[in-house]
Amino acid sequence: MNVWTGQARSQAADDDYLDGNALAGPLSEVFSIDITAALGTCSGCGAEGAIAEARLYVSAPAKILRCPSCGAVLLRLDEREGRLILDLSGFRNVTIHLD
Ligand SMILES: [Zn+2]
Q1: Which domain of life is it from (predicted)?
Q2: Residue 32 lies inside a defined structural domain of this protein
Q3: In the chain, N or C: fewer CB atoms in 10 Å?
Q4: Dihedral sign for Cα atoms in the order 87, 97, 28, 51
Q5: Contacts of 94-97 spanning 24+ positions with Cβ under 8 A
Q6: Residues in the chain with pLDDT values less than 70
């Protein structure tokens, strides 16, 4: 299994990000479980890791979660005008442990 490496390509290799734990609050409005504890697999490079350990960029209008291995966008959370748009298309899959 390939795991998050934290060695993203230069496009995301800056220090202007939080870890994925910062998504717990905004996503608590969508999921009844703590989604940051789930495991995600990157569609770009196949790396897998806890969503809490991915890189969250909050300076753009939308919150952007990037793969720490390749820098690909995993998740986009856009909240405005009373709507929340959640794009999970950067994940090949997300595994949620129910127990
Ligand atoms: Zn990746």
Answers
A1: Bacteria
A2: yes
A3: C
A4: negative
A5: 94/35, 94/38, 94/39, 94/40, 94/41, 94/51, 95/38, 95/39, 95/40, 95/41, 96/33, 96/35, 96/38, 97/37, 97/38
A6: 8-13
Residue 71 belongs to domain spanning: 10-95
* 1 part of a folded domain: no
Ligand 1 centroid vs 43 CA: distance in angstroms?
A: 7
88 within a domain of the structure (yes/no): yes
Q: Name, in order, each residue with C-beta under 8 angstroms of 49's C-beta and a sequence gap of 6 or more.
A: 3, 4, 39, 40, 68, 69
Number of domains observed in the structure of the chain: 1
pTM of the model: 0.77
From ligand 1's centre to the CA of 49, what distance in Å? 10
